[in-house]
Amino acid sequence: MRPESPNPPRTTVAVITRNRRDSVLRTLDRLAALPERPPVVVVDNGSTDATADAVRAHPVGAHVVEAGHNTGALGRNLAVRHATTPYVAFSDDDSWWAPGALDTAADLFDAHPRLGLLAARTLVGPETHEDPLNRVLADSPLPPAHDLPGRPVLGFLACAAVARRAAFLEAGGYHRVLFFGGEETLLAYDLAARGWGVTYAPSVTAHHHPDPATRPGRSAVQRRNALLTAWLRRPVTVALRGTAHLAAAAARGERDAATALRGVLVRLPAALNAREPLPAGIESAARLLDRAPS
Questions:
Q1: Run of H or E residues at 198
Q2: CA dist 246 to 160, 235, 262, Å?
Q3: What does pTM read for this prediction?
Q4: CA of 213: how far to CAs of 96, 128, 219, in Å?
Q5: C-alpha torsion angle, residues 150, 152, 156, 160 (rounded to 10)
Q6: Distances (CA, A) of 265 to 118, 173, 233, 261, 269
Q7: pLDDT in tens, 108-126
Q8: ∠ CA 112-9-175 to the nearest 5 degrees?
Q9: Sign (positive/negative) of CA torsion 155, 158, 159, 160?
């Protein structure tokens, strides 16, 4: 067991994993070495490779939550509910935080009571390349807010974000309709709709070492969830236009489009049942981002 930090922890690190024991143990090694000594909650999404036992034996002293099945991104909701600190930093089993990053993030939250979630600067792989999303977030066309640090955004990378626990829970966390893949935008919408700020803070750094192997079906899931997000929160005209574009792509035989469309149709009744259009001001921000160069 690690020695406790002399100061009460402000930030818990929440990790979700499934059947990636070696990878999650590497992440825990990095978290154990952080000067902040954060408490760690690991949600095991139904692993069959003894991940939970290995995590319990790790000296980081993580609190392990066994979901019993694959909960996808909803595992992060479980982790947040088990956290006891005011802030929660998210890692996947292939990402971790730079030394000092969690204290920097906590200081920003302490100083800005309306800040609900911050997106960190993400460095990828051993070469620490800038994730392309860093530039997209830094170039957000949304105007600065006097009571928020960084640049307002309506998107982030889930494994490189820190949230105010109360704001995350108020917004409902990650949505069950999406399950996993491209789930971040919907949470950003839901936070902003409740008055919480979502910003990009490049002074906070996360490291991401994704498996270089391709993940079959990922593109289809992301396209599915982008359209489901529109049906959940955007005007019907926006959702219908997106559906027409995806249907046309499927008709042309575009890769993954038909799979994505089928996935949308299966989940559409649940999405319509949970539909809550964005407030006018947040919808205007979303439209501004729609028009921004990709």
A1: strand 197-208
A2: 29, 17, 10
A3: 0.95
A4: 20, 18, 14
A5: 20
A6: 32, 23, 17, 6, 8
A7: 999 999 999 999 999 999 9
A8: 65
A9: positive
